[in-house]
Amino acid sequence: MDLFGSFALLLAFICAIYAIAGGILAIRTRNPFLIKSARNAGIAVCALIFLAVASLVYLFLSDNFSIAYVVQHSSRLQPSFLKIAALWSGQEGSLLFWSLLLSIYVFSVLWSYRDKHPELMPYVGVILASVQLFFLILNNFIANPFKLIGTVGPGGVLSWITQPDGRGLTPLLQYPEMIIHPPMLYSGYTGFTIPFAFALAALIGRYPGEKWIHLTRRWTMIAWCFQSVGILLGAHWAYAVLGWGGYWSWDPVENASLMPWLTGTAFLHSVMMQEKRGMMKVWNVWLVFITFLLCIFGTFLTRSGVISSVHAFAQSDIGPWFVGFLIVILSVCTLAFLKNRDYLKSDNSLDSMISRESSFLFNNLILLVACVAVLSGTVFPVLSEWATGQKISVGAPFFNRINIPIGLMLLFLTGVGPLLAWRRTSADSLKRNFGMPMAGGLIAGAIAWPLGCKDLFSLACVILSVFVTLTIVLEFYRGAKVIRARAGGNLLSSAVQLTLRNTRRYGGYVVHFGIVLVFIGISGQAFNQDKQMEMSPGSSMQIGRYTLFCQLFENVPGPNYTSERVSIDVERDGKQVMMLYPEKRIYGDSDEAGTMVAISSTPREDLYVVYAGRSPQSDKPVIHAYLNPLVKWVWFGGVVVVLGTILALIPNRAAAIIMQAAKQPAPATAEQAIPAGVHYDGSD
Amino acid sequence: MFPVARAQQTDHAKKLGLKLMCMCGCGQVLVQCNHINCPSSAPMLKELDDRIARGEPDDLVVQDFIQEYGVAVLSSPPNKGFNRVAWIFPGFAFAAGLGIVLLVILHWRRRVPAAQQPVPNRKKTASPEMLARVRDQADRETEE
Fold first, then answer.
1. Interface of A with B in 426-485 (CB under 8 A)
2. Domain annotation covers residue A238
3. Is the pTM of this model over 0.90?
4. How many CA atoms lie within 13 A of A361 on its CB side?
5. Whole-angstrom Cα distance, residue B28 to residue B25?
6. 3-state secondary structure A576-638
7. Cβ pair B75:A310 closer than 8 A
8. Min Cα–Cα distance to chain A from B121, Å
9. Domain annotation covers residue A308
10. Which of A118, A617, A421, A280 is nearest to B105 (CA)?
11. Which residue of B has its CA nearest to A541?
12. pLDDT at A616
């Protein structure tokens, strides 16, 4: 099976070369046979990568310990689902997994547009195959997951050996979120390849109009959604497993995932300028290029060992390959831009400073500044060491100080942007749209201050959150009121109808509301409390309105670990509410330790209890308890963001009606085909 | 099996501990590092607690930590020399970005596209194609 996997990868590599060469020739000659042949080669690459991954999964499930990668990341005792998850737990496997996810996207694109856009698709195929080729070079020659374990015997003869068992998966990764988190994040990273390929293809091929934007909008949203889920799952994993009481520490690997998310968010907004007004064409193309470059740069940071991180893969010699790839991408993008920049001229001009257009410009500015701040903080230790010869650290306090004000400005624009009209916003409209939300926000601030919300940033966050929420509610209310006046029914059903008529717009509002919830959750950090003490059975600890009673301290055997566990009886306001069981585990396979945090979560606060170990003096268990307000709002906000994105991905009801009508026999007149008042937005 | 040497820290120690990094390479702020059997954080926290308990001034404590572990022990870059760039750069990026945005807006506002230039013959009526194009543009621009 290892030979099968290796062979499939090698064949995929050859097919990718053919897809590129054939594609370039097809573009030059316009030969339909070559175009089809190059596309089929691209599809074959995807199928072969799938076969290679299937064979590696089989090697894991069949405990084939002649393969070095299987030995390093699996063991006989490991449950089957963890054996599958081991596929992406190390450098070689995760790069192959990356290739697989990219293949799924590539296959979907090549297949769904196989008979469409003949001018554009050959370019897209070549660019996608080129990206695949880079990863196939890594899979085949630099980080091959099918390497056998060899030993040099007497006389210098190399022989292959099979280990009796493997080392097992790292304990930190044996957690549900960690199983789902990498596939989600990688789906985000790889997904941004599609808009990149279309943007570059449209630029090189001087494809007319905004069609590439329409074609890639959904792909970008899917990638963005995966990236958002991946980031949140990573944060939840850090919260539940690392045991330091928080979910975001501005670690370089976390930052690497945030940067393309920020530029991707900027693109999703500024793309509307190009769709509606034919403006910001240069900006949009570069935003897509930068987002893709940041995806590759983030992967480079995680895998090269340039910047130290607990999340990073081990140091390896893979870094120069990524640097080379980054240089190639940047050069190709720059050359394509310089050669074809006249193709990106704006169609329209700006009518007023106070307009939706300018709000998008400022929104993009803030998102880009946030990205620059994260990027500069992340790479600054390397720059500083290079410039001064002195090592420095850039930790969470620096990032918080820089990024909290930026985040608040962004939150403000989240409320302001959608209320401004395209082209020009009148003073009356400003008063009508902003008066009530602004007043609501200030009243909320006036209530929050005496209730103890004295931290400046948290107070600003409360005011802005209420402001943004009210702007969103008002938008739904006004639209629903119009529909109710026309069609009757109640306000709720009218709001549902309104949403279904323009899913993109109202889905976007739902996403904005999710972001507000996340901000509210983050603002709770200003009121975190924690307490640590030695606790023997019978002793108690008070934190906030909770009293923790230590009941039992015991050793508990597990399937592939042994643990030290503390049983804690929790009282809230004097009433017994639950038992919590924080523990630490030692995994038999690797002798590595892992923390199992006990969390009781409510919308108001999380009681987060960590068994920190035994006191060396008294041998008593040490319990570290945290009271973290509003954390649940972060996770709930994430769910709302995902739901809003899914909603925005659903075709408008009007568009669906037209598409359905188009499938039926042609009506006698155009009026019969399009119901009155229905407008097809033309997307996709 | 899992020895720890951290006692309950005072608020003062927690606040000062936020300015320092754990030096084991985990990249965590000192008071937040809790990874099992960490060789650095436990002794560093103990030293921090002891010195605060002795009433030593914060600056002196931080300076001694820098002497012992290097500048890397600070959780934020010191605001002097080349490291000042870390603090200035985001603000500079914002100011530069703002300048560019304002320039772009001014440029866009000065430019009068062909479609908006005065029509020389006002009596001339719009062609159906033009009307259709304008209607389509209005639809697109008012739809969202």
1. none
2. no
3. no
4. 23
5. 8
6. EEEEECCEEEEECCCCCEEEECEEEECCCEEEEEEEEEECCCCCCEEEEEEEEECHHHHHHHH
7. no
8. 23
9. no
10. A280
11. B8
12. 76
In chain A, how many domains are there? 2
Q: Do B144 and A504 touch (CB under 8 A)?
A: yes
Output the CA–CA distances (angstroms, integers) from residue B44 to A462, B126, B144, in the order listed.
Answer: 37, 80, 57
Taking CB atoms and an 8 Å cut-off, how many pairs form between chains A and B? 184
Nearest to A397 among B18, B26, B144 (CB): B18
Question: Could you tell me if B85 lies within 8 Å of chain A, comparing CB atoms?
Answer: yes
**Token pair belonging to B113:** 């596209």
Q: Report the share of chain A in percent with pLDDT over 70.
A: 92
ipTM over 0.90: no
Q: For A614, which of B2, B89, B112 is closest by C-beta distance?
A: B2
Angstrom distance (rounded) from CA A637 to CA B99: 34
Shortest distance between the Cα of B125 and any Cα of chain A, in A, equals 23
Q: Residue B138: closest CA among chain A residues belongs to which residue?
A: A276
Cβ neighbours, 10 Å, residue A3:
10
Query: Residues A526-551: what's their mean pLDDT?
Result: 90
CB burial readout A155-194, b (16+ within 10 A) else e? eeeeeeeeeeebbbbbbbbbbebbbbbbbbbbbbbbbbbb
Of A107, A134, A169, which residue constitutes the final position of a domain?
A169
Q: Identify the CA nearest to A392 among candidates B87, B21, B17.
A: B21
Q: Which of residues 50-79 of B touch A (CB under 8 A)?
A: 70-78
pLDDT at A680: 35
Mean pLDDT of A619-624: 87
Mean pLDDT of A547-566: 88
Looking at chain B, which residue has its C-alpha nearest residue A392?
B72
Q: Which of A151-155, A307-311, A512-516 has the highest mean pLDDT?
A: A512-516
Which carries the bigger pLDDT value, residue A403 or residue A434?
A: A403
- Out of B34, B75, B141, whose CB is closest to A277? B141
For residue A357, the model assigns a pLDDT of 80
**Residues A345, A281 contacting (CB under 8 angstroms):** yes
- Top residue of B28, B68, B92 to mutate, by most chain A CBs within 10 Å, is B28
* B143–A contact, CB cutoff 8 A: yes
pLDDT for A556 equals: 87
How many Cα atoms are found within 13 Å in the side-chain-facing hemisphere of A667?
11
Q: Is A315 on the interface with B (CB under 8 A)?
A: no
Three-state DSSP state, A63: coil
CA distance A236 to chain B (A): 16
Out of A169, A199, A227, a domain closes at A169
Q: Which residues of A touch B1 (CB under 8 A)?
A: 564, 584, 586, 613-614
CB B144 within 8 A of CB A269: no
Residue A587 · residue A561 · CB < 8 Å: yes
Quote the pLDDT of residue A314: 55
Q: Is residue A657 part of a domain?
A: no
Cα-based angle A114, A116, A118 (whole degrees, multiple of 5): 95
Asked if residue A81 is part of any domain, the answer here is yes
Question: Distance between CA A266 and CA A572 in Å, rounded?
Answer: 44
Contact A395 B21 (CB under 8 A): yes
Q: Token match 């200030």: residue?
A: A442
Q: Show the domain range for A573.
A: 526-632
pLDDT in tens, A189-204: 999 999 999 999 999 9
Mean pLDDT across chain A: 87
What count of other Cβ atoms lies within 10 Å of the Cβ of residue A113?
A: 17
Q: What are A463-502's pLDDT values in tens digits?
A: 999 999 999 999 999 999 988 988 888 888 999 999 998 8
> Please, which residues bridge with residue A531 across strands?
A625
Give the residue on B whose Cα is nearest the Cα of A400.
Answer: B76
Assigned token pair, A86: 């081991």
What is the pLDDT at residue B102? 86
